[in-house]
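Lab notebook, page 48
Experiment: co-folding of the full assembly
Goal: obtain a model of how the components sit together before planning crosslinking
Operator: M.T.
Materials (sequences as entered):
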Amino acid sequence: MNKLLYGVAYYDEYMPYERLETDIQMMKEAGINVVRIAESTWSTHEPQNGVFDFTSVNRVLDAMYKAGIHVIVGTPTYAVPTWMVKEHPEVLAVTKNGQGKYGARQIMDITNPTYLFYAERIIRKLMENVKDHPAIIGYQIDNETKHYDTSGPNVQQRFIKYLKDKFETTDALNKEFGLAYWSNDVHAWEDMPSTVGTINGSFGAEFSKFQRKLVDDFLAWQVDIVKEYRKEGQFITQNFDFEWRGYSFGVQPNVNHFTASDPFDMTGVDIYHPTQEDLTGIEISFGGDVARSTKQQNYYVLETEAQAFSHWTPFPGQLRLQAFSHVASGANMVAYWHWHSIHNSFETYWKGLLSHDLQSNPVYNEAKTIGADFSRLSSKIMNLKKKNKTAILVSNESLTGLNWFKFKYDSELNYNDIVRLIYDELYKLNVEVDILHPGSENFEDYSLIIVPCLYVAPDELLDRLNQYVEHGGHAIFTFKSGFANEHVKVRTTSQPGIIEKACGVNYQMFVEPKNVKLAGNTYEVEEDKNRVHTWMELLTPTTAETLATYDHPAWGDYAAITGNEYGKGYATYIGCIVSSEMMSGILTQALKRASIWGEEQEVNFPLVIKSGINDEGKTIKYVFNYSFELQEIESPFSQSIDLLSNSIYQKGEPLTIKPWDFKILEMK
Amino acid sequence: MNKLLYGVAYYDEYMPYERLETDIQMMKEAGINVVRIAESTWSTHEPQNGVFDFTSVNRVLDAMYKAGIHVIVGTPTYAVPTWMVKEHPEVLAVTKNGQGKYGARQIMDITNPTYLFYAERIIRKLMENVKDHPAIIGYQIDNETKHYDTSGPNVQQRFIKYLKDKFETTDALNKEFGLAYWSNDVHAWEDMPSTVGTINGSFGAEFSKFQRKLVDDFLAWQVDIVKEYRKEGQFITQNFDFEWRGYSFGVQPNVNHFTASDPFDMTGVDIYHPTQEDLTGIEISFGGDVARSTKQQNYYVLETEAQAFSHWTPFPGQLRLQAFSHVASGANMVAYWHWHSIHNSFETYWKGLLSHDLQSNPVYNEAKTIGADFSRLSSKIMNLKKKNKTAILVSNESLTGLNWFKFKYDSELNYNDIVRLIYDELYKLNVEVDILHPGSENFEDYSLIIVPCLYVAPDELLDRLNQYVEHGGHAIFTFKSGFANEHVKVRTTSQPGIIEKACGVNYQMFVEPKNVKLAGNTYEVEEDKNRVHTWMELLTPTTAETLATYDHPAWGDYAAITGNEYGKGYATYIGCIVSSEMMSGILTQALKRASIWGEEQEVNFPLVIKSGINDEGKTIKYVFNYSFELQEIESPFSQSIDLLSNSIYQKGEPLTIKPWDFKILEMK
Amino acid sequence: MNKLLYGVAYYDEYMPYERLETDIQMMKEAGINVVRIAESTWSTHEPQNGVFDFTSVNRVLDAMYKAGIHVIVGTPTYAVPTWMVKEHPEVLAVTKNGQGKYGARQIMDITNPTYLFYAERIIRKLMENVKDHPAIIGYQIDNETKHYDTSGPNVQQRFIKYLKDKFETTDALNKEFGLAYWSNDVHAWEDMPSTVGTINGSFGAEFSKFQRKLVDDFLAWQVDIVKEYRKEGQFITQNFDFEWRGYSFGVQPNVNHFTASDPFDMTGVDIYHPTQEDLTGIEISFGGDVARSTKQQNYYVLETEAQAFSHWTPFPGQLRLQAFSHVASGANMVAYWHWHSIHNSFETYWKGLLSHDLQSNPVYNEAKTIGADFSRLSSKIMNLKKKNKTAILVSNESLTGLNWFKFKYDSELNYNDIVRLIYDELYKLNVEVDILHPGSENFEDYSLIIVPCLYVAPDELLDRLNQYVEHGGHAIFTFKSGFANEHVKVRTTSQPGIIEKACGVNYQMFVEPKNVKLAGNTYEVEEDKNRVHTWMELLTPTTAETLATYDHPAWGDYAAITGNEYGKGYATYIGCIVSSEMMSGILTQALKRASIWGEEQEVNFPLVIKSGINDEGKTIKYVFNYSFELQEIESPFSQSIDLLSNSIYQKGEPLTIKPWDFKILEMK
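Observation: model returned without errors.
Model output:
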């Protein structure tokens, strides 16, 4: 599409009374130019086994087309109808908690052939029904697809075959997974136990990887079906979601977004985040960076919050701030879950642009201004391209590995906490990043790659990281990186294993810090922020320089953080978990050394700067104020024009941003 | 009975050695004039299937009769014998956790015909055995009956028929419950899923209502059987209990006391409450007000604590204080769970009047004084009638609705917290209340009706509340009232829906308060008590006056509390959860406006005043001191005589109440 | 063995590459003279049903023998192979959570005949294979054996027979367990319900006792098999473990160590404990005292931590301190779990002497000094005998009883907390103790017996305790002692029942203390340590003197702690839970009265003194410094020589102990 899309999820099926024309009129007034339909309502479209009814789809398509609003049609397969489960209870996934119960969405076994038979049929019937409709700009496959921990006997059976293909002999498997421990080894494939009760992290993690592959396969299968029908110019997308902690927190454990996005034309995501006093924009930025990086192109935000819950209803100004933050990260669509609030069932309090009264309201009124600005500025601000010099390497395998092997058995911190510890500080320093993954082949595009907790990694990946440094790259590795191979088998070398080459440091011991700080307060933080917690490695530099040591009566001789010149590059190794403030200091040091530090880094959160190059080749700079306080800085940019007000700013001139407001500056 | 009853539960079956004559002697000395027997000991009376043995019942009846102690006989149906479950494991209720295991009481499916067959047989056998015994003054049906979340296939089957009767078509059901959401709708009754896994609050709440109806039906069925045998003058009662939070906290979620009490002659309840430093009398008062209101008559406290646990053993004086508090609320019986402490099993530490040594002790000795005073003052203090001007409207449906739709997904506050937030402050202001329910037809009897969180309500009820105000009533509605209809379907009007008429205020948005207070500290509380928490609605008055606004940078223009003249009456609307101290201020304001405020409201907790009119038409005033400190006030009453000491007090004369002590004043 | 053993668990099976010769070389350098093998690796030795392969056992035996390292061979029965569970899923224990899942160790039903058949076969095959090997000094039966809560139908069936044998009639059972309560009584053995759902503490506790007996039986059965093969001079041991709170905390609930150790020649235990800043040596001492007391002889520490987790990696010096602490308690072996760290599976982070790189490291280097000193000092410090005057009486039955009847329903304190409250203070006062149990017959060996929470006890035991005092013994009883009989039936006398005779005190009431302290701060502790919490009994002395009373407005007249001269002895009764500091005061008072107090009690923790008599009849005194601070005292000992440095100390001379260091003094 050659314009910014501003959208809503729309459910004619959920409406308490006839609203279609009224809704469309109100959408038009708000500048809504796309709606997403159909993906949750299989039972409406197939009320009984083999009985199809696409009335609601068709009437919405027709009405939207008439109104000039585009439509994305979703396949309805992520919520199964009652009749199916009544006829075939076996479609419900068997997980470690046993077989599921009917009620929620996302409860089926995505490998069950009965489910797949019905899913294929409803997709084909739907596609046959809609395929020629001119309102449709694209299709969404399923929704927030994950594996739902399906792990019943049929899945275990497949997993055995997967292991056979991979290891050929049980002896090879026993050796690599260390199954001899506690008599877990198998000497005949027939003896293979279910993974459900396993205490072997290699076995368990391999199963998780296998489960993520099931998601890849399921999505690719659906894409292939839909491709048979879609017309030229129509895209196929998914709505990926992130690790959920009551909001979109981090890397998704149950899907590998980098492989799962392969068959799609366009990556779509949903991003939900704290708001009101807690709005920082970090999740908007993080989710956007992941989405943009999956296919190294722009992306769609298929769902984000409008009013949502009592704790997410935005302050005046925040809805605008949020929408333009998505676009500033490279989104070409911002769509709300959902148009209207629902009057029954689970998401009654997950409110849409319209409240339950379905009338105009302050949030809807603010949306109108967004729609108008999106429309007016579309050609200037869509298709924003990034040229980031910094990247973070994330790994689903390491996330899983660290769930098996926590910092401490009762540790609440996990992989995503460390990713976010780093990401958040970069965000606050206005350093934009791309996200790399173990399959990425473009390490050399970056001046600095940050590698948090790469606990699980094949030799090949670590060798490539060494090479990256050797060839002049800057890298930051944290604790636990390089520890285990791709099968979560701990390396038998001294640690951090292969990357010792680049890092010039090793260790044999790691301890739990109690009242430990960095000696001399290396990063000059407030006294109570000079805190090492949860995990510390006792580092011994070989060729590295010591950047920080521990302040501790027993461990004071060991290094905490080191830096090493290797080939033409430089590798920093962080041996312990530090406070946010100290992490900021470590990153600052590395950014400066990697020549990424600039004037924009001197501007501090709550002011957030985002950049990109538009279709005209012009650089666009956003400056967001994520606070209740008016912010004033001297413009760090060469001459620029604010696309919202047409004001022109010279470098050094005062730039004033109102609370929860922003500027969109086009560089001359 | 024409006297105050002072009683104990008595279990000859549990006694470690022959005690009957000794026990009766000690009971007589304590003034115990009624015992409750038989309701937990089915296995004693029917040791094997079809083998009956009422020896223990008969000997206790005979001995009590001889001693002039009355007996209440309970049907033993709430604890099933081992032989039954061994022969018919299917009598155990299937709940969302699967089928129960034998051990505890209250584990059977109260709709299971096998259970009902045996239950009917033991009831009839028992009744045939005892029906002519002159010791018996009444019968108790079962005990603390609830539905035990029975929700197995047979119960689901019945529920479908219930839904068919109610909605006739699946389409009507789908529409009203919003089942289209996430493909939950049914297009054939055969497809109806179990409610056990449902995520639809309307479906789930309707099932809870249906489960409460099962309790009504079960109790009515037993009453009908017992009525075939009971003699004239013998009452039939139940022992209802309350929401349990380690003590009797609030409205019972699993029984509708107002409908379930219908077939009974007399409402009986059990009330357990914190004591020692934490004794306030609030639960005694609350439970009593509910019990008295079910049938608008006096009631029996069939169980309350004697020594109970280490944390409930009363300080000297408290047992007396508690007993007379029950009577002051309108109880005509105060009975202890239980006479003697038990030497084995689950309630070993739920101690009775006698400790495990079965000897006289300080608590028992205090009971003696109660028995003596009850006997001496019976005609003066029993049958106390109330003429309360204030009532609180409670709703089981709203309680259930708010469990489905909490203030926030992880909110710990629920319906009863709000009921108690109001009740407790009224109590401390010495405002006595009646309890209304959606079926009450006597709204007009009250000057002020307080309506906490009436989240689920049919139009008809809300219309009646509007009328009540229009005709001159005063009402206080809190947040969330009027939000959803009787099927937990949110109203599609602006909120608070129908009661906007009386309240003159509406809102579309609600948010979670963080650091919010009322602007200007409207109710003049200590600074740290000026706190709005958990829930706030952004109110816009239409015809109402604003009583308070929020102190918040984004929401400061909205009203927090409003008042509205409507017809001849006045409606206060509270849009947010406030501290206890602020609630007291709001109530004070409304009580004054409704002309309920009087001198007794100037007397503050820990002094508690309770009033009533006795059979002679005399007004009795109790003044309780719920504290360790001696309290002295000027008597707010016209000339009165203390029935305990015969002292006479003129208005304004000093009235001194010792710690944990009280006066019973008869007004001249 | 006539030397101190210094050992490791060694798993050739788990090694990532061929290491045997290298490992043995490194062991020799560290003075390791014993390895423990085979006990977890059934699947290696029987890779398929009936296929046996003892290659790894044999090659390790041969290589160790060649190197002069002894071997303990374990029966591999505590971790079942995959093929067995695949063929016979029924070997997995059914617990209250249903049937287990394959994965972990210790998941089988130790009464299942299929399991027993295979277990016997693998034991016999293993024994036949190794029995003549000269490297073997002993055998370990299974590992950390417990009952794993096996409670399926077959176990219930046996339990019924056990009850029949014990009670003969169901009436006797009903009476003793109080089963009439809530209709739980049985009138035919066929009606006996499973214990899994029971709410009857007597029934439940009897089942726990029965389950512990299953462990006794299982171990004795294995011992009998192994005895058929073992040669003269070879010992048979078990590796008992303790109540686990992330470390070895207290009395093991699921095994009665005193009966289970009967068939063994030698008691072996594993002891894990906090270290780093949290190292106190208390668990080393407690576990050692239990182990030593089981058979009143020296014992083996078959497992303790080397590097273990990040939170247990020892500070420099601590590994030595720990090793000699074990020996000072009477251990003749100190062995590590384990030699090398594992590269996969559950215990990857439970690190051994070698880290994952299998190279020399600081902890291993410290082990070398231990091995050398053990070897050099063996004849002086092994076989240490104790002549303790103080003993603590522990009771598995009381532990179970207090789990059924907690101080309060939500109390977090349990039996072991009270045991440790006492034990820890004795430890800090340098009072060494033996551990008695209900079957002990040597009460008279002690001057002071401390009896914490002896909640469950037969008359006979209490009578013996009375006699002990009458004959001149000193005893301290705490609250709850004597309360219930051996079937957890509360005594019907006034409390504390039978021991009232010795204690001269009784009570009928007990309450939960809120803001209660001892009047007059009896034990002169800091104000905030004068705290009575969780439980208080309202004591009335009969013949006793009051040692302390409560400071409380209602309970101030009752005694809190009393002392009573009875016969020639003296009994202290503690009626409430007090702070550690107050407990120390109470113990000091009693120790002085019992003439146990001496100069060594004036030396305070973190200095810990341990004593014993060696084979030469010399007294050995250890002085440990459990702190980061250098400690200096005047030697309280007559002339002594430090066996490590050969320095000689006269009484009163300064004795300086470095941080985490110690002296071994031989008295002249």
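Interpretation: The two ends of chain C are 27 Å apart (CA to CA).
Next step: discuss with group before ordering constructs.
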